[in-house]
Amino acid sequence: MDCIFCKIVDKEIPNYTLYEDETILAFLDIFPHAVGHTVVIPKKHGETIFDYDEVMIAELHRAIKKIMERLQTVLQPEGFTVGWNHGDAGGQAVPHWHVHIFPRWNGDGGGSMHSVVKKNDGINVAEIYKRFG
Ligand code: AMP
Ligand code: ZN
């Protein structure tokens, strides 16, 4: 399969592995946005979270906590931003589900999750809520 992360799993492309178990792999991002910027993936290919069952999703999150603890011990960040880009509009470049872990420091110049998108003009929350029945 022509997927860069599957190639990393298959060891066709080298990586800086921080964590590995039967189903999950985590490695340092090659174009880091922060010291210790880490990418966590299920080894099994799927494009987005919608392609995985609850067991795999739980496994991934269990691994995320372990990796964060390791990053905390080694790098001693003052915080983290953790999340993923989902789909084109969400900024996903690699179509194999992956979670970014950004260790954060006060004054590192980054923003919070809220700085990713800000379209708050005229959104009527009550009206939106009605659409959920
Ligand atoms: P996204 O935009 O969420 O799809 O992010 C994809 C991430 O994968 C980017 O942060 C890239 O820097 C990272 N990336 C791409 N190729 C590699 C690679 N060979 N090793 C490590 N990270 C990679
Ligand atoms: Zn893949």
Automatic annotation (TrEMBL):
GO terms for biological process: nucleotide metabolic process. Pfam families: HIT. A motif (Histidine triad motif) lies at residues 96-100. InterPro entries: Histidine_triad_HIT, HIT-like, HIT-like_sf. GO terms for molecular function: catalytic activity. The active site is at 98 (tele-amp-histidine intermediate). Residues 4-111 form the HIT domain. Coiled coil: none annotated. This is HIT domain-containing protein. It comes from Candidatus Magasanikbacteria bacterium RIFCSPLOWO2_01_FULL_40_15.
